[in-house]
Amino acid sequence: MDVVAIQEHFEEEYPREGCGVLGVVKGKKKWFPCTNVAEDENEFIIDSTEYLKLLRTTDIVGIVHSHPDASSEPSESDTKQCDALGIPYYIFNYPEMHLTVVKPKKSTTDLFGREYEFGVTDCFEAARDYLGTQNINLRPRALFEDDWWEKEDLDYFTSDTIKEWSLRKVELSELEKNDVLIFKVHAEINNHCGVYLGNDIFYHHAVNRLSCRESLFPLWHKYLIGAYRYDANCLP
Length: 236
Prior knowledge:
Elements lengths: L2 H11 L5 E7 L2 E7 L13 H10 L1 E10 L7 H10 L3 E6 L4 E4 L20 H11 L25 H6 L2 E4 L9 E4 L8 E7 L2 E4 L7 E4 L8 E7 L6
């Protein structure tokens, strides 16, 4: 989080509340300052046009705003709005910049902005977790070895393994939402996967990046080698 840039925005908005969002773009977290259109200087309402534009281009993982000359503790309105959106609130008092993070009772952002940890929050677990929200339940995988694509005689994305997850191969020209995409990225074997969301957008979690939505073009389509669709009748 770019606290310096956030503080500069709050300074520009003072004595009104400053506001913005934290979003994930291409696996990196970014701060996006927004316009506060609230009439009361002790409240904030993010400009709806700006927010909708960010929703189309960014995975929003946090709402940020200031409490000028006050505590960073959330107001009743902050807590209610946080729960309603399902997105964490990051509240700074200004100018001290003490931070309070308010987490919603039920989050809608758990899939996005996750830190990479092999075997826990990696590409396969991201795909499995996303498909779970679509009522598609892939079987748990066997334990992978880290950096397995760099070791001889290890290949976890073979056609037989993929079939064990009840996935059947489909043509790349016939992609549908929730198809599992398999990639070969700077390796001799298949070593990455994601989930197709439609309109050339897919969800994935690459090594040393945050989980996010991303376009297949211009980069990722070069590494795309296959697509698979869940089929409960597809048995190993």
